[in-house]
Every structure is written in C-alpha cells, then in structure tokens.
Fold this protein.
Amino acid sequence: MEQVQISVPARGWGQTTRADAWWVQPLAVFLGLSTFIVYSTWAAFQGEHYAFGPYLSPFYSPEIFGDSTHSLLGPKPGWWPMWLPFSPAFLILWAPVGFRLTCYYYRGAYYKAFWADPPSCAVGEPRSGYLGENSFPLIVQNLHRYFLIFALLLLVFLTLDVWNALWFEDPATNSLSFGLGVGTLVLAVNVVLLGSYTLGCHSLRHLVGGGHDRISGSPLRRQTYDCVSCLNRRHMLYAWMSLVWVGFSDVYVRLCAMGIWSDLRLF
Amino acid sequence: MTSATFRIWRGNAKGGKFQDYTTEVSEGMVVLDAVHQVQAEQANDLAVRWNCKAGKCGSCSAEVNGSPKLMCMTRLSSLPLDKPVTIEPMQAFPSIRDLVTDVSWNYQVKKEIQPFSPREPDSADGTWRMEQYDVERVQEFRKCIECFLCQDVCHVLRDHRLHGEFIGPRFFVYSAALEMHPLDTVDRTTELANDHGVGYCNITKCCTKVCPEEITITDNAIIPLKERVVDKMYDPLTKLLRMFRG
Ligand code: SF4
Ligand code: SF4
Ligand code: FES
Ligand code: FES
C-alpha cells in the first residue's frame, strides 16, 4: 500500500488541542476496573464466607470442590499440590476473567485506560511503536469465542443457583421449604445482568447469524440475530452493570455469611 | 452582536503556526461561517476546502478545539466562546496549506479493495432478488460521505502512521459494505487480515465517535470483519467444520 509522508509531527504523550476533560472517562474506567480487580482477587483468595444458607457467591459458582453444601464433587481434592493455595474460586474464575479480558468492549476500554493507546481520542500517545492485535501477544484476543462457551455454561450454573436460593432449610426439621429472601433477588438480578451482557456478545452475534450474508433465510436465525443485536447495542452498559452487580452479590453473600448483614426473608 | 476569537492554523507542508482572529459572531453561525468571515475580512489568503455547507460533501473536515469535525456542521453555540476556538487541519494527512490537507492516499487505498462482484443474475432480465432485511446492514455503511474524519482520529494512522499497512476505519466500512452484501461473491477476509491490517484496530471506537453520519463503525463494521477473519484464519473449530462440510 502507498506510504504517505506526513508533515505534521505526531503529538507527544498527552498532547492535544482538546479543551474538554478528555481524561475523565479513561480515569473512571481505570478506577472502576482496578477496584474490581483488587476486590475480586481478594475475595477469590479468601476461600471462606462464600456461601450462606441456600446462597452461593457467583465468584465461587459452580463450586466444583469445596467445603460448603453447594460443592458438586466434595471437599478439596487430595491431589491438589500442598504448596498451592486452594480456593474453590480458582477452579472457575479463569473463565469469566478470560471472557471479560477478551471482550471487545473491555479491550477497547482497557487499552485506553491502562495502556494509553490512545489515552483518549485525538490525544498524543506515550509510545510510537505499535503492534495492535495484529501479532503476538494481542492476537490471542481472537480466542474470545472459546471463552464465550464457558461464559454461557456459567450462566446455566448461576441460574441453577437462583433456583437453589429459593429453598431454605428449616433448622428444626432439616426439611426444605420454598421461600424468597433478599439474597435470592440479589442472585436473580445478577443472572439477568450477566445474561444481558453475555448474550449481547459480539462473537455470539457473529455466530448466531452475523457471519452470514443472508440472515433472513432462516426465521430462527433472524430472530436470534435480532435479539443478540438488541442486547449488543447496550453491551457497554451491561458490561458495567453486570460487573458491579456480580461484585455486589459476592459482598452480599460474604457479609451475610460473616454475620455482619442479616438476610431478610420476604416469605 | 458578540465577538469571538478563532485560533486558526496557518502554514503548509514545511510548517506553520496558530494565528488569532477576532470577529463578530451571531446566532446560528457554524464554524465554517466564522472561517469564511475571517477570510473575507482579515485573511484573504486563508485556504479552506468546502462545498455543500450541508454536511453531505465531506470536504470541510478539520479539527475544532482538538476534535475532528465537519466545520459546516459545528455550531458556534456548541463551543465555549469565552476562550479562543482552535481550528486546525486534519493531523493524519499531509498538509497542503492552512486548513487544507491532501487526502489522496484514501483514494489509492480504495482502489486496492476488491470491487463488488455480484452472483449471476437471478432472472433472465438480468435482475436480482434479495430481502430488504439482508441489505439493511450494508445500507448503514453506504451513508458514508468520505469526510475521512474517522481516518484522522484513528490512532493507528494519526499517531502510529501505519498508512502503508492499515486501510483505516473508512475502508473497513467500505469493505464491510461489500463483504456483507447478500449478492457479493468475493471473499476479502484474507487480505483484510494480511494486507489491510484489520488486526491493528484495537477497537477503541474513536472513529465511531466522530462519524458525522453516525455510522456504528466499530461495532457494526470492524468487529464483524474481525470475527470473519477469526473464522477464516484463527479458529481451528470452524476450520474443522468447514473441512467436513466441504
Ligand atoms: S476503533 Fe479501530 S479503526 Fe476505529 S479509531 Fe479505534 S483503532 Fe481506529
Ligand atoms: S465512516 Fe463516517 S467518519 Fe468515516 S469517512 Fe465515512 S462519514 Fe466520514
Ligand atoms: S464482545 Fe463483550 S462479551 Fe463478547
Ligand atoms: S461543506 Fe460539505 S460537508 Fe461541510
């Protein structure tokens, strides 16, 4: 392709003639994501207070191995290396982390906020060299659709968790009775928001129909494509809402389990 | 009548500087009006390109207060006039003079994209049949007025100057309009990845933000193209499926 010789020199780090507060948005993204990373790492390392009655924190779901009643395959396995810290969260958290890390929205957002590439639109950059997602390492972002499969699976488990959160154990008789607590609602909202985020994924949009030039041929394909596109239009909004809420769901279950908050039973 | 100061870049390919012009402004004026007024009253030799004054020809692209904009569509009432309003040429292209840049690189790039190649006509009279639903996607892309503001703001061109390896958002929109067209038969994914640099786009969406035609460039054109490239080049499962389907 033809090269062009540009006479104006590229602007330096942070240089711009923009007069508005261009740094507000990247700063907000930086603070928002950093807070979440710090909290979720801390919460994942705790390995306790992640379940309360019928509620299971979404950071720990599904609990493949673990000590709570929610555990699918029993306690921590014997083969787990002694030197490696164990938490049920470690076994599953890589999936949502990988999913969000390779999500098209988050990629654009953290390239700006964490790597200043660019710091904001029409603002000079700190580095002149650039590889983008054209070669290793960032070409790996193209694996997003594989993480999508796991994210969809997690959605199924989290929906089951809401079902389980409707059955409360009576301590006197040990029998289960149907009920609804604030925690049930917290977990239900979590599934709705995570669902709106996951089902609006760009890769999903491509896979359900976007990849075809003729979508109208199959009514099912057309309808699915329309649904995913509809959620996709607000992908950024759902990305943030679901992030905040999944963190809050963990806080809720954790504080109830620690006895700091008490869960309100609605019926 | 109030007055406002315009800090306009004056110069050419060898260099230049900002110069302040104070002029009367009135209600309803756009930046291009102010530039014309300065040109008429104070700087007859000020070079500015324009044509339609209606946001449809894409000639008057420049950077107003640091943001890529059509001068004819930027109302003065949308700008803070207590400070000088800076007006400078697009940064991603070579300067010709004052506010005018040489955008001819874009026309070269366009020639390298494989043109529309429809399938055989559906009926004997040489016409085709297609659903409105299926062409709707590409109709969004056809709104493009080739103002090249998206090219200007894209950091891959603006800061990293990869004009030789990256065709820029405008031409991803163009490629997507062809690639997703229900009648088109050409597969452009290999060159999109290898020669046109779709992988350089890091989906930071500045192009989408500046597009005066409000084309959802990143979400509707670039990301779908990236996904098609993944299908073709990086995804072992789709490759396998394609082998079985033949
Ligand atoms: S989204 Fe891609 S093409 Fe658009 S401005 Fe950003 S890097 Fe450039
Ligand atoms: S896509 Fe939008 S910003 Fe880019 S050239 Fe076309 S109209 Fe201008
Ligand atoms: S693109 Fe955001 S989840 Fe897939
Ligand atoms: S003069 Fe035609 S778009 Fe501004």
User: Anything to note?
Assistant: The radius of gyration of chain A is 22 Å. The first strand of chain A starts at residue 51 and ends at 52. The longest helix of chain A spans residues 24-46. Residues 24-257 of chain A form one domain.
